[in-house]
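Input set for joint prediction.
Command: fold jointly, output tokens.
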Amino acid sequence: MITMLIVLAFIVANIAMVISNKSSFKILFSFLTSLIVFIFLNNIKYEYSDLYITFVIFMNFIFLGYVKFSQTGRVRVLPSSRNRMTNNLIPIVSTLISTLVVVILLNNVSDEILERDILSMKESAFNYFQDFNIMFVTGVTITILFFYIVKRVKE
Amino acid sequence: MTYILLISLIFITSAVSIYMMFARQNAVDSFVGLSHMFTLFVLVSHYIELIEKISFEGSLIIIFGVVFVVTALSISIIRFKQYQSSGNSNIEG
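tokens >
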């Protein structure tokens, strides 16, 4: 039940990220999806989830810094021809390189998905609302949402 | 159940990142697609660990994280340089 809830929250956050217009909200929702993945990895006791959240926070910091700096207007000059090459080439090249690594690794994986006893992990029966961290995060999110809605209603 | 969850998370992440990276050509979309690709690679590496019963001991996360952070830094620097020389036609907002 709680795992289905996690997937539902993930899908809702993804849809909100795709729909949202402002880039700050887009980065915020993508960070929310990364947090959901982090909670999931933490729940199945993956030891290196701290490394994952560290890199995600660092990347999101870079993205937000770029967006906020480009919104100041200090860099923006007169509109001219679009930069088609360098903008869109680098992520594609980097993802292709990383995909190659993953394909090389996947080469030896046998198809044992349907076998039952291959996994040592079981269905998690973990009460999420006893964790203090999750309670804190939900409290902070609800307060931020409340203040945002109050600000929007006033306008 | 957690197995199915992991697989579905991998599929959703890949679909969203591919959509964000190719469907709309905006800076923020490619950034968000990059971070989702990083999530996808971490999930896939953990999946390989579970199936093969081996442990990478976090080395793959470090490699992919460094690759993607350097990519993000270089993208932002290249875009700023490009904008200073020839201007910006799409406004990031």
